[in-house]
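Appendix B, example 12.
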Amino acid sequence: MLAGTNLSLIRNEDGVDGRETIIFDARAERAFDKENERRERCRAQIEKLKADPALESDPVLLRWERETAPLSKPRMHDELEVVLTPADPAHVKERIAFAKSPKVGEMLGDPIKWDAEDLYGYARAFTGVPRSFFEQKRVLDVTAGGGSIPFESLRLGCATVANELNPVASVILEATLRYPAQYGSRLIDDIEFWGEKLIEKVALSMSPITLFSPLPPEEIAHLEMHCKACPEIVSRFMGPEFDQIGLLYARQVTCPHCGGEAPLLNTCWLSKGDGDPWGAAVIPDGKKRNGTVSFRTYRVKKGKGPFGEDPDRSTVSGGKGTCVHCGQGNRGRGDQAAGEGRVRTRALARPPLRRGGGALSAEAGQGGARAVLQERGARRRDQDGEDPFLPPAQRAGPRRARRGGADARRKLGPLGGHAPDPDRKLSAGE
């Protein structure tokens, strides 16, 4: 499995015959030796896990063992053909669940930290320019949702038809398919400009009810540890982060018994994944009448927070709400309050900071995505002078794929596929 920097070993990606090869030179030999060392470490973990009879025949463990068998070393300067295999995201999810299982943690002392080679092994589709196009193929997605499948189909040059009944998803689908095909990478600046406008408008409207605070000292310590390779950026994240779109919300009613704020929560979990679980604590102010609540986030270790908080706690169960102040239950009161307009929505918490996502990487991620688009676009335009984000048949305009879509749409009749009309121009306001 090739991953990360080893992908640069591949030669002849743009060859006429489409073959991809690796010349086994000194650089490839070093990568080969490191891969065998990695596999040896994996097999050591596998042997520990197989000591448990309950895990010995686990399908995930057996497949992992097969895929980490030692490799036979080629001769120097041999030409090795790169073999492409279908991705298996379902099995990757099984591996992630297996790594986090209590039995595995008990046997190894910690959850398994999968290497990139043992997970997906490929980058997200939109980050790369397609190397092959299938202009004679036709793709029909009758339940397209927001359009991720037909979007990739268009990028591969297929005649594409997408259908969706949900009106909200249909609007997203229209923008996902029509506008990139029509405008290509020229959309980047417009999306960023109007996105910032929307965020500013939301922030102005929400600022009275979304009070932000700086990171607590213990989280600053985690932040400094996470950014130890680049400590100069720590100060950028230590203050309040006025991120209106990075909030989680909870519905809330007023308790009819004590008049206190009663948040309606079916769980106090914020995040269970990525080996970094978080919860939210509901903190009453202690008043017997007209009490208020605040929220505090915490890291979950061994199923509990640092002060014994239970992330499985809920204030709503079976349609019955329980007041966090007086403990009184009110069956059906939440629905009645909603009908009378007395349900409020309030900010609960910011999603937790985590590696590779969340607040730590939001700014870098957005800028990075733009930089990748621009860099790849410049490189590809240097080669052929064309827009790199459209297949060859669509770079002068998406007419070809749209014409195929229109033909199929007429055949679908009442399904009404969302294939753009090749001769229709958008009017102002559409």
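The longest strand covers residues 248-254. DSSP finds 13 helices and 13 strands in the chain.
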